[in-house]
Amino acid sequence: MALFPAYSASTKNTEKESASAENTKEEVSRPAWLNIESFPVNLADIPLPSEPQHVHDECGSSTEVPDVEVLSVDTKKNKHHKKKDKLKDYKRVKTVNESVQKEFFEDKNSVRGYLTVKTLTRPLVPQYYTKFRIMENISYQFNKKRKTKRYFMQVLEPNEETADLENCKKSTDSDNNWQNFHLEEELSKRTADFNKTLTEEPNNIDIWLEYVKFQDVVQQFEQTYRRGGSAKSLRVTTERKISILDKALTDNPQNERLLQERFCNAERLYPADTLAQQLLQMVEKSPGSIVLWRAYIRVTQGSLSLCNTTAVMKLYEKGMKKFHQLRRGAPSVTVFPMESGILDLLLECGLYLRQAGLWEQLWTLLRIYLELNLAQPDSDLFKSSISVPEDLITDLEETVLNSQLPLPELWYRIEKLREAAHWLPWSSEVECEDPQRLVFVDDVSDMLHPITSPKLSIRLALIVMTLLKIPCLPWRHTTMLSIGLHQVPSFLDGVEVLLTMYYPQHILLLNDKTFLQGAINLVYGPQYLTSSWPGQEHYLEFVTKVFHSSAICLKEPARSAMFIWWLRFERFLVILDNIEHCKLPPQRKKKIKSSIKEFLKRDENRNNGLFYVEYALFEVAINQEESACKVLTTAVAAQGAAPVISIACNQKKGELCQLYRTLCEILLHSRKETDCDEKKTETKVLAVLAALVLGTPVTNWQSSVISTSEREVASNKFRHITTELLLEVSSELADGTEHLLPDFIVDWIACYGWWLLLTQSVWEAGVIFEEALQKYPSAKSPSTTPVLKSTCQREGIFESYVGLLYYYSKNNPGVYTVLQDVLHRGLQEFPNNLHLLSIIANIETTVGCTGSSWWKLTKYFQESNCLLAQIFQIFYMRYQGGLLQIATQQSYEFLNAGGPVVPDPSVKNRLSSLYNRLLNDSLTKRCSMLWRLYLRFLAEHRQDTSYHSIFYRAVEECPWVKVLYTEAVKLLPAELPQLQDLLIEKELRIHVTPDELDILRQDPSEVI
């Protein structure tokens, strides 16, 4: 017996096995040496490596498995001796399944759906650590690299001829240094292009400003890839911008755009006193630059440490005096810009006095300007004695003092009472207890300068009424440019301008009165919107007298423009009262209509058709459409039956066309919703438009039917006259009356658009408006250039175009896309046009649910840096938040019977982000209205800790705004002494001093 039986058995059968090596698989699979006793395990079913595998089930059936390729293992031994604790290099056996390999493909597209496959999450997923022993028991563990997302970070396009696999792997490296190199190369190339272009064109202001803006891209690159501090990086970037602008100013020393940009950047870099010294040197070199004077005064006015009324008023006085000196002996070409500079400073000085609460000084300054430049010598037109009776104020104060309220609340209420009642200087012979009410002409006479240019008279009247809180109606973008408010970011301190969104232009009215909900709470005295504070009726009488006195002193067409403004203001008050945004006294409502009728009966006003247009629109405001149509028909008949185009006078031509257009729009917007009435209304409108173009009488327009031949003749005449009108585009400067008086070309194109809408289609009407917009130049010119008459006409065409599309889209929602596109284009050119913004508000409040998505709405204002557009976003978010709150409450009532109501924080977070962005912007951070809205937002959401810090931040940005201090007393009553000290330190108007309040609180019997 052999020592190894298995081996002996195998040797005996060697020849037999070699002879039958090619027999059947059953014989090969059962070698003899496996059947011995020393190997009892039955391994007969285990296949050899050279044969295919079979899987046997219990029934004996088999399923073939594809061939498996076994890769060779590297068995090369290390020649050196083994070292302790050293890892060996080895290669794992990799099995490749051919059937699976056929179905496998490399996923090269970034399909995000594959990333949603559920995998193990922590702590179930295993963790692996790779350790290398370095010294004794000290080990080093590799930190994981930054985990990248799936797929490559760069697109790879290797050269197939020269690149091999190893080079491809190197080029796919996603290291930041590779991307850094390419970005830095692009930035260097871009900078070189700017330098080359500016060397060739040093007077190209747009390229200079683009180069300055490009520095923000460089800063972002440095902050991302160079890892510099944000504050340090911002400072370096600002210094770089200033050096570029200084170089640009050497080639363009008097360019206003470059000066404005330099001031904005210098304000971020230097402290107020250092910047004031720099600007003083620049003003001495260029005393005729209004931009430098504005910047110099705003540095002192906007600094918490430098601001006080005496210092600021001296700067305004110094600036006006310098412009007056430069005007003396200068040619007529130089006189106009110097006098415009005086009016610019007058506007900003008036805004400062109004926001500081110094109304007595404000009216004294405005009155002497009106008496010197508009009224006749020794005229008493602007001397007013309208004031609230002192007995009424005393009774109200006693009621407040007897209410036993806390001291801060007592001071707040008495201050508001006197603020609403005292806006005129003390004129009685009785001794005045308040020394700040004693204002004399000598106190402001150093700022008085004559305005000799006739074209600036209407602008002076516009400035005076704007400072008295009377907004221009309608409020357009070109209106702000003409007045000069586009250069003053702090002009918006009340809601009077925002409420003009409810002013119906072309019979389009903002339907939802809750859009500006809570706006009336932002009113501060003196005011004319609410009767909850005294002085409303007296202030309205005062404003009406100023309207009439100014109009009497002006010549045509400025005289008609001022009276039209007054008529529109009276109608505007009635509309606000109807939608509960204004509370007029009952006597005032009855008095308005009778005063308008008396005005129309005067001999000098009987033949002015524009006054009858405003009276007819007033009848529409009080729901008297039939009476309005009769007034307009009578006015048109009085003008005669001649064609409009045959009238030589442009003012008369525009007057008659405005009559026809207003009559058509009243008929269209007052029609009923039934089909029969709609057809009758369209027939009436066509008859009126045919009378306009053919020159036929309009006495029987209600029953006349236009024949087919008359329609063809009218259409041909409309087309022919419109083509001739668009041949010549005026390049004249606007004189200021364009914002109040109608324009013949705009009204004619609007009438032609209505004609095409009713006879053909809305698309044909749109073609006419598009052709007109192509003829008139775009308004994307810099804001510092003078306003052209063609720019005002282009804005009017946009308004008419939007009004027609909105009227048609009420019954045809498919036009909303076109309407939104036209609105977007119009707001890009005229972002401060409140009529266009009101159309957006109408769309958003009528589409249902909570309106459009936020990104769809903000696309209107992405490129806009205008203040009113940004304020509109805030009120829209407030409105949307109210709707979401109602929807949340209703869903809770219907769907969930238990549990608390979970509010939606999305609107709150979005509003907070919007406030933070606007209040960090250099343009909008000086707007007191934004700070007031933000502080109210914090108070509504009970963020008391934030309120304290945000209030003092608001005071740092706007230290001269009195209303910020008075409203803070409501939520910070413990800081009343500090707030009163600030008011006294800044020399702002304070009606009740702390000592006087203590005396008022004492018992009269205790007072000696």
From TrEMBL:
A biological process from GO: regulatory ncRNA-mediated heterochromatin formation
Keyword check for Nucleus: yes
Residue ranges with Basic and acidic residues bias: 13-27
UniProt KW Amino-acid biosynthesis keyword: no
Pfam family, one: NRDE-2
Domain of life: Eukaryota
Keywords: Nucleus
One GO CC annotation: catalytic step 2 spliceosome
Compartmental location: Nucleus
Region of interest called Disordered, as start-end residue ranges on this chain: 1-27
Similarity comment text for this entry: Belongs to the NRDE2 family.
Descriptive protein name: Protein NRDE2 homolog
